[in-house]
């Protein structure tokens, strides 16, 4: 049995993991979805001051306060940024880090740095016009698909996202990790790539080349960027394979 701490990406709360978490429990694992400050059922805590450090503290405190050990920490999308730092703080509590359609961020690099300039400009307009200058609502589908594949999401799943998504404190997109820390060889390094990321890795994209080398292990999910919504059972099956295959 493994202990999974499931950290959602931008605009999402623990709710996004419900189906995957249930499928993991049915396989005998402990599955603990997290909601970061200002999102999901914690949206009332959103303020202009909520930033990357807030979410790093959320993840670290979640593990420490529940006295979790041998943790498999799963980071979807945006969550890779705070998880990169939190993982380094967890020491011997951490057994494995799984970057789900994401990758670790280097010091000082923020989420906006990996997006095309025209996308960043449109997101900033969304914040200014619809987010009181500090919140980023879930972008409209035409903008969302410019940086996140929606493959596998039918209208029902898209409606669920639109209904349950909460605005992301924009400061979290503007800040990059400082002193992210190094993961030792005793920590299992895993990336689970969905279709677009898989294609980039197969093509040997220089910025991601390290993910094709030891100590990284790679798994593939044949879907778009939101596998916990598009293929939750298959995601659980893959996470089960990650822990059962060791490192």
Automatic annotation (TrEMBL):
The keyword Metal-binding does not apply. Residues 4-237 form the AB hydrolase-1 domain. InterPro entries: AB_hydrolase_1, AB_hydrolase_fold, Sec-Metab_Biosynth_Hydrolase. GO terms for molecular function: hydrolase activity. It comes from the Bacteria. Keywords: Hydrolase. This is Alpha/beta fold hydrolase. It comes from Streptomyces caniferus. The lineage of its organism: Bacteria, Bacillati, Actinomycetota, Actinomycetes, Kitasatosporales.
């Amino acid at each position: 049995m493994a202990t999974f701490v499931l950290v959602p990406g931008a605009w999402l709360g623990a709710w996004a993991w419900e189906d995957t978490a249930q499928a993991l429990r049915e396989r005998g694992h402990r599955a603990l979805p997290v909601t970061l400050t200002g999102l999901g059922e914690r949206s009332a805590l959103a303020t202009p001051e909520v930033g990357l450090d807030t979410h790093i503290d959320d993840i670290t405190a979640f593990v420490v306060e529940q006295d979790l050990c041998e943790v498999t920490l799963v980071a979807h999308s945006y969550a890779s940024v705070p998880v990169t730092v939190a993982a380094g703080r967890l020491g011997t509590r951490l057994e494995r880090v799984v970057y789900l359609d994401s990758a670790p961020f280097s010091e000082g690099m923020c989420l906006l740095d990996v997006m095309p300039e025209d996308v960043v400009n449109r997101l900033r307009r969304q914040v200014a016009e619809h987010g009181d200058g500090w919140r980023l609502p879930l972008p409209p589908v035409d903008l969302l698909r410019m940086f996140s594949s929606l493959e596998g999401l039918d209208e029902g799943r898209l409606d669920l996202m639109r209904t349950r998504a909460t605005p992301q404190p924009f400061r979290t997109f503007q800040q990059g990790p400082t002193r992210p820390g190094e993961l030792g060889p005793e920590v299992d390094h895993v990336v689970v790539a969905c279709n677009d990321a898989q294609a980039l890795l197969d093509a040997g994209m220089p910025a991601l080349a390290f993910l094709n080398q030891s100590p990284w292990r790679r798994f593939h999910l044949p879907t778009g960027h939101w596998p916990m919504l598009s293929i939750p059972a298959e995601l659980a099956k893959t996470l089960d394979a990650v822990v059962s295959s060791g490192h």
